[in-house]
Amino acid sequence: MIVIVAEKPSVGRDIARVLGCKGSGEGCITGEKYTVTWALGHLVTLCEPDEIDEKYKKWRMEDLPMLPDNLPLKVLPKTKKQFAVVKKLINDAATERVICATDAGREGELIFHYIYDQAKCKKPVDRLWISSMTDEAIREGFETLKPDSEYEGLHKSAVCRSEADWLVGMNASRAFTLRYNVLLSIGRVQTPTLNILVKRRKEIENFKPVEYYTLTADFGDYTGQWIDEQAEDKTANRIPTRERADGLAAKIKGKSAWVRSATSEEKKELPPQLYDLTALQRDANRTLGFTADKTLKLAQSLYEKWKLLTYPRTDSRYLPMDMVPKLYQTLKALPEPYRSLEAGMERKEDGKLYISKRIFDNSKVSDHHALLPTPKTADLDKLPQDERNLYDMVVRRMLAAFYPAHVYDALRVITDCEGEAFRSTGRAVKQVGWKVLYQQEQPAKKTRGKKKDAEEEDTAALPPLNAGDTRTVKKADVQQSATKPPAPHTDASLLAAMEHAGREIEDEALRESMKGAGLGTPATRAAIIERLLQVGYAQRRGRTINATDKGVQLIGVVPDEIASPEMTGKWELALDEIAHDQRDTERFMQGIRRMSAFLVDYARTDARQVDFPEEMRRGKGGKRTATVKPLPEAACPLCGKPVQENAKAFGCSDWKNGCHFTLWKDGLTRGGGPALNAKIVQLLLKNGQVAGSTGTLQMAEGFLTFTPKDGGNPARMSITYEKK
Q1: Phi, psi of 447 (to 5 degrees)
Q2: How much is the pLDDT for 443?
Q3: 404, exposed or middle or buried, with CB in 10 Å at 0-12, 13-18, 19+?
Q4: How far is CA 358 from the centre of its chain?
Q5: How many domains does the chain have?
Q6: What share of the chain is helix, strand, coil (3-state, %, to 5)?
Q7: pLDDT at residue number 513
Q8: CATH number for the domain including 83?
Q9: From start to end of 418-513, where are the E strands?
């Protein structure tokens, strides 16, 4: 008998069906040759500190750092029944071999080996490594099983990641919690990610706008903007004072002008590369308003449930050469309206696609290739709308990669009037190319902000102009403007900052060595963002993510070694090297232990004094005690008693007598709505609705609804609104 261990029941059932296993057992499906069982995500995890040593039950600075020689494993209580099933099957005398069929990545490797080790199993192991859940892919995977020893580097990397997060997180969180008597969560990846948000918040808060003026000359059939030809291109159109701008306007109004130069340069925009997970999450946030976490869950559903996407947790944007035949199968299986779009793909005379290094490159494919649709024809009418929208993005990106470039003539005209230069730009499209696939997106793109004006100016139509042509200035328009602060982060921009965290490092040699190393991995970045929101270090406002006061204070007291992307980027690079057998695990873990001890010493002796909000003070024995405070001038709409606030919600102060009116602070955030604060709740209870810059909140009929201004999907939560 061969026992197959999948990561989830749904995956196990798919594998069992393909292998012809039909017998039902407790926590498994049986067949003549195979028995398929499964984890429920993690069945086994690292022990808590007090499970390693009784003395760690009490949080005491003198017991830190916690650096046990080895970190033992434990079975998670909630899933101990399923662990017992898996343990019995893989250790059964009739079991000859075990097949690891967990997700083909670092975390999947960890899930399996923690189960295998905790069960003290000694049976030989093979690895199923597949990139899609179609029947054909599963069969191919079983035909090309490899010994698990070929993935030993990935296994070691997974264990090192898990133990590093335990050592740094447990020690730092306890040390800083004890130092400030406020529950503080500190992590190897989450803290430098928070630092990115804090840095942006400070840039916005400290930003001082600089007023300037622009002057536009109307030449009748086109316009031009005044520029200082000696200034940098980005600021060439800025006039520092109203007097200067008005003077220039008076100087040129009604005067004759002549075209000093008119140039045209052909430019090409190559098709975008295929998606990896982070790129998909960023585009889905920009165009569909999805959070990173929502995109990952939808992509996982399209992979596991619908079998329409390849493995989503990939960090590669390339395909291996042996994927060429599979790509043709995928194209043949596309449903309408996509089949008709194939006509625009560039092909050779024999009808075959051009094989480009921008798409096919074996050296740039890591554990998994770029995200693609699978060779399964999708029934689009059966797909939920969100899944359909995400599937559409992946299909169009695959098609676009093989379309011709977008080609245009970039037009630049300099018109002279009274010795002053006026610039006009435009573009004349010669070949729409791959952009034809995205023309329906153009209206949505207009909401993106800063790029809009520049793009509209760049694409403006210009009449045929030649050097020496003359015009008369019909009108001179002066406009007041001001420099703008950087925009708050969104999921898209924060993911980009996490992916390219090494770019901010000043040391050039180190920055170069960290290319490809960011904060976290594509598979974990969404969870890190959600964690920051969960612990109160960040909050959503519409589509933006902002650091809270608590988050700012935390970054102000932790050392740069844990707050900057440099150390975390180095660690992620080291973990990748371990996965490829290029680095010793013991050396890596020694560095982690030194860092854990340093963080404890820093909290004990060097951390500066700061008063954190009293929202979550620690009581005796390290237990959290929530601070409750009244909300001024706010009455419960159900019973009229005062409303109060705690760390997680606003609710009726008469709750002990059965009034359960509650508004959860984060109840709308997962749907893209704002986190509730005291000011918003006061206005809601007074007026029933609140209109803000990003949308409108309305409380009615047992629900609180947020309707965004940009036309996105409303966020809604049920109000606990009954009296027993």
Answers
A1: -90, 5
A2: 35
A3: middle
A4: 24
A5: 5
A6: 45, 20, 35
A7: 53
A8: 3.40.50.140
A9: 420-431, 470-472, 475-482, 489-490
**Identity at 389, one-letter amino acid code:** N
Q: How many residues does the chain have?
A: 724
The residues annotated as belonging to the active site are 311
Domain boundary residue, one of 378, 401, 424: 401
Cα-only R_g, the chain: 30
DSSP-derived pairing of the beta strands 28-30 and 544-547: unpaired
What is the distance between the alpha carbons of residues 80 and 64, in angstroms, rounded to a whole number?
Answer: 31
Q: 198 near 555, Cβ under 8 Å? A: yes
Type of residue at 40: L
Residue type, 73: L
Nearest to 281 by CA among 273, 272, 291: 291
Burial grade of 528 (CB within 10 A; 0-12, 13-18, 19 or more): buried
Quick one: 512 and 423 in the same domain?
Answer: no
Which residue bears the tokens 């597949």? 130
Spatial separation of the C-alpha atoms in residues 230 and 384, rounded to whole Å: 56
Kind of pairing between the strands at 470-472 and 475-482: unpaired
Exposure of 62 by Cβ count < 10 A (0-12 exposed, 13-18 middle, 19+ buried)?
Answer: exposed
Q: Residue 55 corresponds to which amino acid?
A: K
Q: Which ranges of the chain have pLDDT less than 50?
A: 442-456, 616-618, 620-622, 722-724
One domain for residues 554 and 687 = no
Q: Quote the pLDDT of residue 101.
A: 97
Q: Quick one: how far is CA 571 from the chain centroid?
A: 20
Distance of CA 68 to CAs 73, 135, 169, 359, 600, Å? 13, 45, 14, 47, 15
Query: Three-class SS of residue 594?
Result: helix
Check residue 716 and give its pLDDT.
Answer: 78
Residue given tokens 């395909």 in the structure block:
319
At CA 576, angle to CA 571 and CA 577, rounded to 5? Answer: 95
Task: Report pLDDT for 566.
Answer: 78
Write out the residue range of the structural domain in which residue 283 sits: 277-401
Rounded Cα distance, 723 and 701, in Å = 15
Same domain? For 570 and 440 the reply is no
In whole angstroms, give the CA distance from residue 713 to residue 584: 49
Torsion of CA 507, 513, 514, 517, to 10 degrees: 180
Distance CA 655, CA 661 (A): 8
Q: What confidence score (pLDDT) does residue 450 get?
A: 39
pTM comes to 0.81
- β-pairing verdict for 2-6 and 97-101: parallel
Distance CA 190, CA 568 (A): 10
- Which tokens hold the place of 705? 């609804």
The span from the CA of 374 to the CA of 309, in Å, is: 5
Q: β-strands 470-472, 256-269: how paired?
A: antiparallel
Q: What is the dihedral of CA 48, 49, 53, 57, to 10 degrees?
A: -100
Say which residues have a Cβ less than 8 Å from residue 484's Cβ, sequence separation at least 6: 209, 450
pLDDT at residue 609 in the model: 85
Say if 618 falls within a structural domain: no
Strand order in the sheet with 146-147: 23-25, 28-30, 34-38, 2-6, 97-101, 125-127, 146-147
